Amino acid sequence: MLKVEEQTPVVFSSELLAKFDDVKSRYPVGKEKSALLPLLHLVQAEFLWVPTSAMDQVAEYLDIQPIEVYEVATFYTMYFLKPQGKYALEVCRTGPCCLVGAEKILDHLENKLGVKEGEVTADGLFSFRGVECLAACGFGPVLQISPEYTFYENLTTESVDKLIEDLKNK
Amino acid sequence: MSRKLLLEHINVPGINTLEVYRQKGGYRAVEKALKTLTPEEIVEEVKKSGLRGRGGAGFPTGMKWSFLAKPEGVARYLVCNADESEPGTFKDRYLMTYIPHALIEGMIVSSFALGAKVSYIYVRGEMMPQIRILEKAIAEAKAAGWLGKNILGTGYDLELYVQPGGGAYICGEETALLESLEGKRGNPRIKPPFPAIAGLYGCPTVVNNVESIAAVVPIINDGGDEYAKIGIGRSTGTKLISASGNLVKPGVYEIELGLPVEEFIYSDEYCGGIANGKKLKATVAGGSSVPVLPANLTLKLANGEPRLMSYESLSEGGFATGTMMGSGGFIAFDEDQCIVRNTWNFSRFYHHESCGQCSPCREGTGWMEKVLHKIEHGHGSMDDVDLLWDIQRKIEGNTICPLGDAAAWPVASAIRHFRDEFEWHIKEPVKSQQQNYGLASYATPIEKAPVTEEK
């Protein structure tokens, strides 16, 4: 459910708008709505989530109705509709990864970070969630970290601990 | 060693760069196609090759191309389906990561054959690293004159763009993919019209899988007839198999179609057997959507002959004793794995990924997930197994796109082959929470199967 909360409107920088222009130029005239998914990714990379005010501005930029942006942002699972940790960890929880221990990794993250799935740690650094198949089944368990979507394979509880420490010290 | 067409140079350092890719004979197919062949001749070569769509459906690629409508003055599009999301499948990620130019070369040749001036590679959004790799490779190719205006002085123009998805399995269905590429929710379209008539922006469009497009390169280099000599029967050429689960060496393997399944699982050239010295219990041979098979039927057909990695042999016996090639996502389960738990996991996946358009799928997938959760957690009753059977039957064939079928088949096959294990969970609610059922009695390889299927 899309919950529209009071938010301070975000401001798009000229650099971000230049990236928007570049994406928009890939489609035929009159078909610029095709840029919607890539633009939302750019927004998320900038603000680490997709606030409603950003969706409204994207709608204005593409000359479409705000609802056309909301319905897309809520349909696709990658767009965060509420703030996440600076590092949003997404662990694959689908069949093949579970055969090699993905559930253990999810439990371990919950203990290690001290937050439930979808919550953000007090220092604002981490959030995590289980996601469906990340197409790396032969190298499971796997996790990715947005917004760069860096990828970590063949996870063990030890390698997850090290990863968390490395990110904390970054 | 079997022949490698796609992964021949995978271990060459720097093969992801244009320079090294060129040294290894890369972009020869573009030169040959654009300078010496007509678009019709290229389509003809692909038809002769017998190449079948590598994304899962297995439809002949050349035939798909020949259906493309060519009305005067209307743009035509080639869209590459790189939305690889089928659980168990990771070959396209591998190909794009290590040999991005193989896909780009295939895209140029295929776009030329179809008369497309603008082509898109729709990559699932989670593969941002691969998107960056492809964009870099496209920039390299463009700077060297392989893309853009007047390629090789032939007068052919082509622009190639990478489009990220947003994280939705359904966008691997070609019409949902086109909707998504148009900036909408990924709801599959009702067919007809097929994309070949009205696809992207209502224009004639071909959607092909990454591996299918990459396979066009060796087909043009060596000729369709040469390609068709590899493989067995109507399963021509080589296929990338993504091997995962409890195997000694999971990973991506290029096989010549027709390789015995037993050799693929146990030989050191491929998966090297089951990990930790365990026994094989079951396999899902073509990605999570295809029927699960117990070990005996994985290795041998119902008549006792060896089962082969080919479209025909994997589906031999229909769903009663066979499965499907699918996308080539080969998942192996050892004796410690629980079929009920895995079926529940897959059902959760399909429930999560259903686009919600068709009631049988939207409601049915959630219902199956709940019933399976109940059985797995020791609260099931005997009626539940029949209920599951009933639900899956009412989903199959009653939806706009094949996601409904894909959700039904794993459940149906699990009950068909492993009903004992479901019933054990129900009869032993406490024990089943503490231990697994173990190796099914019929999961040991047998010499001769007791049932012969009627044709």
Structure description:
By secondary structure, chain A is of the alpha+beta class. Helices cover 43% and strands 11% of the residues of chain A. Chain A has helices at 14-24, 36-47, 52-62, 66-75, 95-99, 102-113, 157-168; strands at residues 87-92, 126-131, 143-146, 150-152. Chain A has a four-stranded mixed beta sheet with strand order 2-1-3-4, covered by helices on one side. Chain A is elongated. The model of chain A has no long low-confidence stretch (mean pLDDT 94). Chain B has 455 residues and is of the alpha/beta class. In chain B, 42% of the residues lie in helices and 15% in strands. Chain B is built from 19 helices and 14 strands. In chain B, the strands form four sheets. Chain B has a five-stranded mixed beta sheet. In chain B, strands 9-8-14-11-12 form a five-stranded mixed beta sheet. In chain B, strands 6-7 form a two-stranded antiparallel sheet. In chain B, strand 11 and strand 12 (292-294) form a beta hairpin. In chain B, helix 15 runs antiparallel to helix 16. The radius of gyration of chain B is 22 Å and the shape is globular. The two termini of chain B are 35 Å apart. At the A-B interface, helix 2, helix 4 and helix 5 of A face strand 4, strand 8, strand 14 and helix 15 of B.
